[in-house]
Write a structure and sequence with these properties.
Layout: H1 6-15, H2 21-35, H3 37-52, E1 70-72, E2 78-80, H4 81-85, E3 90-94, H5 101-112, H6 114-119, E4 123-128, H7 132-141, E5 147-150, H8 155-160, E6 163-165, H9 168-176, H10 181-185, E7 191-193, E8 196-200, E9 206-211, H11 221-232
């Protein structure tokens, strides 16, 4: 058994902290810049290209509806947006995959906030373009607190307008370090969703959103809870 790399060791320590999600993400970015310079450079180049192209700019805005979906969960059972909303407000998070450390930190934060979210009747759904074999791992990572759905070939992410191509430089790095996107997704397209979070009321109306081509940044749990608290004080439409 080999010793963990400096970056792996840093990530393990970050996972063990109780800092807000934004701080943990910043710590990870700093660790990548310090211990994984090739990734840091490739990531920044990709992010600059995505921002220059206004990637994600057509995603649904606050006050609009998220498009309906019917996607398989980690067991293969088809789950619809209407079915989920019938149980209460919803947080829908688009994640790149089980291999993404930034996504893992976000999903861990959702699991840690489960009690606060559940007390408000809120469910969390993670949508990622991976086969059930890998979404089951994510479900286990969150201690069964997050519903994980497979968006194979990014069909739903395309409908939302948040699909990005990883690019040749990132592809080469991932292949070199054994991140087998083609096996995880079951295709060789190398597309992933721009990480995005949508907070929905019971009618599916978007109360808050974060769609950022900088996949190192995510919506903080505190912002989600604040949004839900404000919404609870509003009269039902």
């Amino acid at each position: 058994m080999t010793d963990p790399s400096p970056l792996e060791e840093a990530f393990r320590k970050i996972c063990a902290t109780e800092a807000p999600l934004s701080e943990r993400l910043a710590l990870l970015t700093a660790a990548v810049e310090r211990h994984g310079q090739p990734f840091a450079v490739a990531y920044q180049t990709l992010i600059d290209q995505l921002k220059g192209a206004a990637a994600g700019g057509t995603a649904p805005a606050v006050g609009e509806q998220l498009p309906p979906f019917l996607l398989p969960d980690h067991t293969g059972h088809l789950v619809g947006l209407d079915e989920l909303l019938a149980k209460g407000p919803l947080v829908v998070s688009f994640n790149r995959g089980h291999w993404c450390e930034y996504c893992e930190l976000e999903l861990r934060a959702f699991a840690q906030a489960h009690a606060d979210l559940a007390a408000r009747g809120v469910q969390v759904v993670s949508i990622m373009p991976e086969r059930g074999e890998y979404t089951r791992k994510v479900r286990a990572l969150t201690h069964d607190t997050v519903t994980v759905l497979s968006d194979i070939d990014n069909g739903y992410a395309l409908a939302v307008g948040i699909v990005m191509w990883l690019g040749e430089n990132v592809q080469a790095l991932y292949r070199k370090f054994g991140i087998d996107i083609e096996r995880y997704q079951g295709n060789g397209a190398w597309f992933v969703p721009i990480p995005a979070t949508f907070v929905l009321d019971r009618q599916g109306r978007i109360l808050a959103r974060k769609v950022d081509p900088d996949f190192r940044s995510r919506m903080d749990i505190e912002e989600i809870l604040d949004t839900l608290e404000v919404a609870e004080g509003e009269p039902q439409r």
